[in-house]
Amino acid sequence: MGYSHSTVHDLPQLKGATSRITSPGAEMKQTPAIKPHHTMRGHTERVGGVAHLPDRRRTITCSYDGSIRLWDMERGIQIGDEWQDDSNKTPVLSIALPPNGETVVSGSSNGIVRLWDAETRKVIARWKGHTSCVWSVCWSADGERVMSGSWDANTGKLRSTIKHEDAVRSLAWISDQKKLISGSWDGSIRIFDTATWQGIVVLKGHTDLVYSESLSLFQNDRLLASASSDKTVRLWNLDTNLPVSPPLLHQERVISATISADGKRLVTGCCDKNTYI
């Protein structure tokens, strides 16, 4: 997994061919590969984030080239012009959609959080408060709050601030909205009470960076998977706030982890250029 990719791939269902997809620590084996259905080109720098609109026919991407782009997934082409709100083309590091898909929130390297209208592609609001890069943004389940520092999506008012010792790279809101989970480059995962915004617990175990696409909730938000630069993926029981099992070891840094829709499979992305199931 490189760091200079500026293309977007539309990946359909499994097709014939081969790929290295297996289990960490197991003997490498050939499995059906996921081949790109479309390759969408337009970004000139690294793609920072991808979000699918509810119709599943359109996808929005953000990039270090300072733009946001809307794509037609069926035809594999860009829809309209790129979205720009900064003449300096400041890198856009993160994006997220609310459940209704009517707006888009983006975070930039200059600390500005922007709210966009998904249809007109115009900026509705600019929220300033961060003093450095906004690596991760997420919405509450009711679409009323944006987390990058807990902005109120309706008023643009800063609700609260949570802190780590280093950059906050990942965010996950529990579905009942009573807790927020954050992962940081300081190696910690913290859980906050969203009524008071006070820290409840710190999940300790990772010894290096926790990445931006590395937190995944499953089993009715009772279990959490986290991925780290320490070459491990850890599973946490959120009832006890303790590890479920020994860490899953990888050969290189693990930068992403996600759970299948049925909750039965964990998929991880590793810097050894492999995906593990």
TrEMBL record:
CDD domains recorded: WD40 (cd00200)
Signal sequence bounds: none
Ranges: WD repeats: 40-81, 85-126, 161-193, 203-246
Keywords, ordered alphabetically: Repeat, WD repeat
Pfam families: WD40
Region (Disordered): 1-51
Protein name: WD40 repeat-like protein
